[in-house]
Amino acid sequence: MRKVILIGASTGGPSQIKYLIQDLKLVNTTIVIAQHMQANFLPSYAHQLDKECLSEVVLLENTCFLDDKKIYICQYNTELFSNLRANFNNGVFPFCPNVDLLFNSASKLTKDYEILAILLTGIGDDGAKGLFELYKKGAKCIGESEKSCIVYGMPKRAYELNNNLLQLDIEDIKKEIVNFIQR
Question: I need a surface site. Which of 9, 37, 87, 165 has the fewest CB within 10 A?
Fold first, then answer.
């Protein structure tokens, strides 16, 4: 079964994301990242990650079918559909790219894909509800622990919604990602 890793982050996320993905060798796995950031900064962020990471990192700026062995950085509010087709939603959302939108759309894919969803550091609650929906559909879900968060907001809210949520330090999240890819 093809694997999908979803990562949502806000304040403090860029360095945490780099740590998690820098030396990953993707096998039959696609990674999609929604990092709250102004749209005009996302292309340079994706380009810099591509230079520093073992796997290819691309900016998700057009509607497309997602390839395995690639890491996608969402430039816009992104939804996933069957066959891992990414599309954009022009609705009004409080945060962009919106993590809840990405996670909620992926909750419809849990029968066809093995999904690992991770909610990292950030202010607010974006991603908490979507992570809970993924959890209810059988996806493996992780919230970053307060200990390693730059800002313990988004993962805290996710844990308040679902106290069964696995909370891990960033180092242990990386181990979970590697194990998920390799099994």
Answer: 87
